[in-house]
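Reopening this one. Same input as before:
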Amino acid sequence: MRGRVEDLAAALSANGLILRGGFTFADCEEAPHGPSGAPAKSVLLVGQAGAAPWAHFLRWREQQPQVIANPLDSWSRQVIGDVAETFGGRAVSPSDKPYLPFQQWAMRAEGLKPSPLGILMHPQYGLWHAYRGALLFEEAIALQEASEAIHLCDACADKPCLKSCPVEAYSADGFAHRACLAHVRGADGAACRTGGCLDRNACPYGADYRYPPEVQAFHMAAFAGL
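Same output, byte for byte:
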């Protein structure tokens, strides 16, 4: 299976995507179904580091209708779905309903913990990474168990990620969704609309993987429905 996983990773890399770890479900777990409808035995997480998929997504977008709902999700589903079909797996997405526990899967697969913003903190990528989908297989895949990663937030005393938002959208009480949305849509939210979340950008870690402004503006427009 090792060679098959390497070939799978190479197929994903052709579109700027990477494998983000995985694991085998325990016998006592209620696993989602695989391609035949039988319970899956293994899951491989698929995602990105930095904005590597962006150029691939844009080339795909040029060939699509001008108006398309959730284009990045559609692109991810297509790319990961093609890989799943080639390698005998079932592709699933974080936006599938009923929702699958992607955050828990990701923490288990890579040993990560959430940052104060809720985004998982990666020791190399910081906050500049994402999970685009997963591949479910009906066979056990021998994978090295993830050890707990260094959680950079523990060493960050100043927490600039909680001090940069003008409406204090993130706090110990959680995410103030309505306040954030109103600010981004309002007259004072231009910096957020064009350059992304100020709190996220204030984090000093993973700067080499920071999304370019146009990528952050795309995600912010999707968040705000603009």
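So the earlier flakiness isn't reproducible anymore. For the record, The two ends are 44 Å apart (CA to CA).
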